Amino acid sequence: MSILIINPNSSVSMTKALEPIVENLNLPSLTYTYFTAPPPSPPSIDDAESSQKSADVCFPVLSEQLASYDAFVIACYSDHPLVSLLQMHTAKPVVGIFQASVTHALHILPRERKFGIVTTGKVWEGLLTDGLHGFLGGGERFAGVQSTGLNAGELHSVPEEDLERRMEHATEKLLEGGDVGVVCLGCAGLVGLEGVVRGVAERLGLQIQVVDGVVAAVVTAGGLIRCKY
Fold this sequence. Notes:
Number of helices: 8
Oligomer: single chain
Radius of gyration: 17 Å
Distance between the termini: 15 Å
């Protein structure tokens, strides 16, 4: 069973950062191929305009590969137009990491508690909130979005201590809102930073779970392949 993992921006380093996270899932029945968008797709998707541009660049290439894989994962944490675009052209599973993280959060969240998202740039606070409401049709169990102030392309260029400090601050703001039981990592570039989020929760005396959207999407895609809907 084969999954094409799609990075819709043109940053090869971001694609490379996904590989160990996926391979460490140890799902022997699944094989993975990684796709990085060609230029002129932007190196970092930081708003609705760059998201749409990346979809426009990727779709003509990906539409020719739909027969070659059993499922597709869109590794951009947004309501990315490529998800619905590919779904219109194949009956195979197409899973966005944003949507997968939300559904996983709801599956593990006690009914009386909420989930929230820690993401990159401030523009995503509004965009992800709108995307969440569009996906769920509401947001009673949604605690909101807090951002690091960095765009996705900067995540691998800033000093590690600066990134962790920003992650800690964003996580603190989210958790101090109260009643948060699950935190979703709101960017593919944040993979591997669960420990920072957990550390903040421990310092505040809180128990939370952390959902990595890339992991959630790959596991979801593998399950959907087996279901043979």
